[in-house]
Amino acid sequence: MSAIQFPAPDASILSRRAEIVAALARLVAPESLVTSEDELRAFETDALTAYRRMPLAVVLPSTTEEVAAVLRACHAMGVNVVPRGAGTSLCGGAIPQEDAVVLGLGKMNRVLDVGFADRTMRVQAGITNLSISAAVGAEGFFYAPDPSSQLACTIGGNIAMNSGGAHCLKYGVTTNNILGVRMVLVDGTIVDIGGDAMDAPGYDLLGLVVGSEGQLGVVTEATVRILPLAEGARPVLFGFDTSEQAGAAVAAIIGAGIVPVAMEFMDKPAIEICEAFAKAGYPLDVEALLIIEVEGSDAEMDAALARIVAIAREHGVRTVRESKSAMETAAIWKGRKSAFGATGRVADYICMDGTIPTGQLPLVLRRMDEIVKSYGLRVANVFHAGDGNLHPLIMYDVNDPEEARKAEDAGNDILKLCVEVGGCLTGEHGVGIEKRDLMRHQFTQADLDQQMRVRAVFDHGWRLNPAKVFPLDGRWTPASEAA
Amino acid sequence: MDAGERGGVSAALLPRDEAELVAAVAAAAAAGTPLALEGGGTKAGIGRPAQAERSLSTRELTGITLYEPSEMVIGARSGTPVALVEATLAERGQMLPFEPMDYRPLLGSEAEPTMGGVVGANLSGPRRVVAGACRDSLIGVRMVNGRGEAVTSGGRVMKNVTGLDLVKGVCGSWGTLAAFSEVTFKVLPTPETSATLVLHGLDDARAIKALSAGLGSPFEVSAAAHLPGTVERVPKTLLRLEGFADSVAYRAGRLRALLAPYGSSALLEAAQSAVLWRSIRDVTFLAEPRGEAIWRVSVAPSRAAAGVAAILDAAPARHLYDWGGGLVWLALPAAGDAGAAVVRAAFAGTGAHATLVRAPAEIRAVVDVFEPPAAPVRRLTAGIKASFDPRGIFNPGRMYAGI
Amino acid sequence: MQTRFSPEQLRDPAMQASEKILRTCVHCGFCTATCPTYLLLGDELDSPRGRIYLIKDMLENGRPATPQVVKHIDRCLSCLSCMTTCPSGVHYMHLVDHARSYIEATYERPWHDRLLRRVLGALLPHPTRFRFALLAAYFGRPLKPLLRPIPAIGARLAAMLDLAPSRIEPRSTMEGPAAFRPAAPRRARVALLSGCAQPVLKPSINDATIRLLNRLGVEVVLPKGEGCCGALVHHMGREHDSHAFAARNVEAWVREMDGEGLDAIVITASGCGTTIKDYGFMFRDDPAMAEKAARVSALAMDVTEFLAKLDLPATARATGHVVAYHSACSMQHGQKITDLPKTLLKAAGFVVKDVPEGHICCGSAGVYNILQPEIAGQLRERKVANIARTRPQVIATGNIGCIQQIGKGLADAGNPTPIVHTVELLDWAHGGPMPDALAEAGFADQPERAPAVAAE
Ligand SMILES: Cc1cc2nc3c(=O)[nH]c(=O)nc-3n(C[C@H](O)[C@H](O)[C@H](O)COP(=O)(O)OP(=O)(O)OC[C@H]3O[C@@H](n4cnc5c(N)ncnc54)[C@H](O)[C@@H]3O)c2cc1C
Ligand code: SF4
Ligand code: SF4
After folding, report:
1. Which CATH number covers residue B234?
2. Beta carbons of A86 and C88 less than 8 Å apart
3. Interface test mutation site (partner C, options A28, A37, A41, max chain C beta carbons within 10 A)
4. Which of A46, B239, B378, C106 could cross-link C64 (Cys pair, CB 3.0–4.6 Å)?
5. Could you say which of B72, B161, B400 has the minimum Cβ distance to residue A254?
6. CATH number of residue B10's parent domain
7. Is the minimum distance from the CB of C48 to ligand 2 under 6 angstroms?
8. Considering the entire predicted model, what is its pTM?
9. A34–C43: do the CB atoms touch at under 8 Å?
10. What single DSSP character describes residue C334?
């Protein structure tokens, strides 16, 4: 694919490569600096592999001070920096550019402090999402936002993308579960934003930083909220003959005053793919599947389920299957959370992430199917039904340039559709490069200008992850304002 | 049409739609007229006295613009009364999750609080501990920046990470960044019932331990407060449970057993519980005498009691805790600096921050009302102010001098 | 992932197989999180996804391997944790095997590395030479402080000496070739892999296996001509040598299968099991061997897999000890045997504990602990600490390499908990002698129960 452009690399930076590398070498241990072409190659992309750019160098610092030193040096030399966590971004958020240094947080993966009484925890930015929960699981706590990639993605990446997950229906997304960050600004200044109290003084800078896609600063530490684990949790599988029925059941459940912990939707192709991988016992004879999870004591779960099942029956549910054991529960979620990867067994895919008002679900599902078919491609749908966050997986052959282009066009059509019906381009994966050029479909120039002005407060020279989020043309800078 | 024409020269600007709002702001921007931005004006007494020439109120920008119960979303123009939004939601068994407090009892103000004001102050209430504050439920804002440009951020869907999250940036900005024209929230079903477990006679430190134990349990405590000896004859430690009746009953039993080491407990039924939490939400315990200064301290619960003890040692204060100890309300004599030095010293180094919520204007003009930020944060704060409002026309100086 | 191979490149069957593997990888990064080297080093290049990328680049360009690529591939433990994690079903094992032989073919290692690898390759697979080397190591131990500072190779030599046991076991009385017939009526006939290093280091493991199987009515043969499975040299990329070893075994077993017949080929070292189960793939393009190798792979079984089929009787003594079960990587990731050994131990009356971070390698990984002593040492410490968290009385595992590696870690930490092979505990519970390691740790033997009286 090649539809998405990168800014032309700055030739003067490229020509000073040796000098830049030498400066970095003075700041970190040799093991923390990657410069050979062979080795740099492995950093040229993230989970949006259709796009690749070799970085100038990769630095893997071990402390906040090292991060600060690297940023200070890059700032002084006028070098762009692309922060990187685990490189699981699906929108190309961590893809480098030729004139940029990649700053990887992989070595900073420790828990720093746990405060059970305050239900908070301080961690380094490179720790994986799941390791946070694992560190406090034995004491009955967990970190709530659970992107499907939680095994691998870092909290720093989650903060940058404001990541969500299946259980965010009840517990909120990243921005609702972070109390503070330690962050290094583009010039190397270390700032603490927020803290460990419930709210912070002054402007909600933390709210701006979460979801800023590595453009406001490099997060090196985070204080997160941890929550008590429920007494029990039970996912239930509801199979329907049509997507419309499933969608109507979701609306009716919420209408009845019930907000389950999670409500996940899969269509037939997705069910087949996930079942083949996880052997979770998903029904294969239905067109649409809802995984609905309830929490609490056994009696509470029974009561909640009785209400939900009654509603599902009114909407013509065909099969209802409860998880009967921890192993089954694990398999059910493993299947759902592996949906993207498991699709990889079948074909290459691109994963969309638009969000729509849930009332538009039947219309959008139908239109999406038409769109994808019109390009002669196939689609599998998994999504967070409770909040309308869609994940159509458009399947194609990446080695066939023609098909790759079609897949990308189909994806763009779908996202535009999401915006048309009142939704947005991305619900949890971020804009990155992937949706950058669609931003004007959702925002006016005034909207974007205001965002870019705020961005400039943190990084007026567009040095941090500059190829992302905002369309390359018409970028606001202090200079463009003056002109 | 110029909203400013109505009601005489010095009267408030009262735009009735977004176009009028844009025009009013653009005119003020062009003329460099500083504006006091407000909704109903019920919280005008909070903050440093603003150096405005004119006030602009959004209270005529009213009406619910969107309500989809099955999508759990509601939108309203910024001047819509909070009461109207809450009543509309209640008809369909829903509510604003963050339980916004009503400052009128504490500030002795009247008029009608508006949704724009809720956003400007990032209000919340006892349910903050589980449902977050206003900023956590706010999903979309239409606003006018200090250049007179209409700007939209967020939208009407619950999950949205498209672009920089300006929604958060402007929530809690006390009218210093933008004038809101419309705000959209996600909402939740109202719990079928509620109940409150009451423990008696605990000192502050033990009470907060009990609250932490409750909040750290799987029994979904939805509010946790402590009314100490300075406001109640017998200290009361309170934990609220909400949900379906069968579930509340079950969890009340389990919670009681869990907290048995803290003494025996009583259980308040839904109606009593509602009244009690409303008073905690609105801090009516400290409303009188009106002459006292009121402080609001946000702190990690485990460090709250020690800070309060230091204050009590130094000054005749009354106090109460909400958010499991994470929010301390204090009443101190309004004389001198209204206790600023004592309060800030007591919590120094704990990561806490204190806001002077109620005090005579003369004191608010000289004391830091909002916790002064560290140098780099102050730089960012000034930058953000300038990015929205380069000419400094919105509530200048209300949060910080020069911002 | 997109790949860029030319049609000529794809004419090579090995390249074709690797291309197919690369195409299934979606670069999702899930595998990085469960990779021991990424956990320690936090560098994409030392993660499965990074290695896959390095391999892809190396193979696509058809260039000789560079020192940088070799460094990161060498650091891979071949623990295959990444394969367990991968939702896309990427066959990392075949890919890295291909990369290793590609490296051996195109890359000239520094002299010391070559030397060390040659020595290891020459010693380990041959029990007699290995026993002799251990003796030498035993006497060489006092030299360790002198060795360590030698540049390039000192640390590895020291590691080698470190791992050599402090006691040289006497030869087993049950060595092959031989057949051990059960006293009870015969219900099955199996071949037992005697292997190479294990019978030298811990002859008690196969002894216990033979006793236990005989007691259960299974005849055990140690056929003539069978020996090292080839895994050790295979992991060093020496495809030619490993194929030679494998071919010898295939021939030996096929002779037995076609002769008196075999119900299973039983393996007590899971590292070997993984390799033998892969013989079919190894010889897929060799018309003379393909079918035979596939037959052997189909019959290969870990001893716990075979025992699980036998429907074991009640135990002969009371047990009840708390056992931390360490699942070897080759067991859980290579052969996907996870619960079976634990089920058997539980059925034999032991209280079985799962080790936290159980999916992470102990650092043994064939000769890895000699070639990469630093990483191996860190993983060993981490593993021993995790095991200690379960407060076990005894540690059980199904792979000789792990026994040596963890044993060393325990000794370093001053932790007296004994580590034994799962089958040694099972043999004991079912009437065999108490494992030596337990006796040395001061365990009291349990009396055998009175023979079961017929039910009333
Ligand atoms: C199979 C699969 C499933 C997924 N499922 C979900 C899902 O359910 N929900 C969801 O929300 N996302 C999902 N994602 C997307 C992705 O995992 C998230 O966006 C994740 O938060 C990225 O984290 P990361 O550590 O990999 O960050 P990276 O991909 O390395 O980086 C992502 C962005 O964050 C920036 N960044 C990283 N670290 C820092 C830091 N310390 N400071 C500043 N900026 C930083 C980078 O510059 C980049 O812009 C999925 C991805 C995959 C491959
Ligand atoms: S988990 Fe599998 S698909 Fe994902 S990067 Fe690793 S090998 Fe590739
Ligand atoms: S085999 Fe083990 S060490 Fe090698 S890449 Fe896979 S997980 Fe990492």
Report:
1. 3.30.70.1380
2. no
3. A41
4. C106
5. B72
6. 3.30.465.10
7. yes
8. 0.94
9. yes
10. I
What pLDDT, in 10s, does the model give residues B72-96?
999 999 999 999 999 999 999 999 9
Please tell me which of the candidates B71, B247, B388 has its beta carbon nearest to residue A296.
Answer: B247
pLDDT above 90 for A164:
yes
User: Residue B369 falls within a domain, yes or no?
Assistant: no
How far does the centroid of ligand 3 lie from the alpha carbon of residue C391, in Å? 28
Give the model's pLDDT for residue C455: 40
Is there a contact between A192 and B374 if contact means CB atoms under 8 Å apart? yes
All domains in chain C, ordered by first residue: 9-106 (1.10.1060.10), 118-163 (no CATH), 178-307 (3.40.50), 311-440 (3.40.50)
pLDDT in tens, B235-268: 999 999 999 999 999 999 999 999 999 999 999 9
Which of B282, B314, B337 is the last residue before a domain boundary?
A: B282
Assess whether B26 and B160 both reside in one domain: yes
Is there an atom of ligand 3 within 6 Å of C81 CB? Answer: yes
Query: Chain C residues with CB inside 8 Å of A51's CB?
Result: none
Using an 8 Å Cβ cutoff, are A369 and A378 in contact? Answer: no
Q: Which of C372, C380, C330, C309 is nearest to C83 (CA)?
A: C330
Beta carbons of B376 and A119 less than 8 Å apart: no
Q: Are residues B245 and B226 in the same domain?
A: yes
Query: Span A257-282, mean pLDDT?
Result: 91
Counted domains in chain B? 3
pLDDT for the residue numbered C146: 67
Choosing from A64, A148, A173, A459 the residue with most ligand 1 atoms within 8 A of its CB, the one to mutate for a pocket test is A148
- Using CB distances shorter than 6 Å, the residues near ligand 1 are A 46-47, 82-90, 93-94, 105, 125, 147-149, 153-154, 156-158, 160-161, 163-165, 213-214, 218-219, 340-341, 428-430, 465; C 28
Q: Domains along chain A?
A: 11-104 (3.30.43.10), 111-228 (3.30.465.10), 233-339 (3.30.70.2190), 347-420 (3.30.70.2740), 445-480 (no CATH)
Is residue B333 in a domain? Answer: yes
Q: Residue B264: give the domain boundaries.
A: 193-282
Cα(C272) to centroid(ligand 3), Å: 18
Contact C59, C102 (CB under 8 A): yes
The verdict on B161 and B259 lying in the same domain is: no
Locus of tokens 């329907």: A240
Confidence tier at C161 by pLDDT (50, 70, 90): low
Return residues 154-173 of B near A (CB < 8 Å).
155-169, 171-173
Of the candidates C25, C43, C87, which has its C-beta nearest A106's C-beta?
C43
* Pick from C27, C284, B162: nearest CA to A354: B162
**Token digits for C26?**
């979606």
Same domain, yes or no: B197 and B215 = yes
- Expressed in angstroms and rounded, the spacing between residue A87 Cα and the centre of ligand 1 is 6
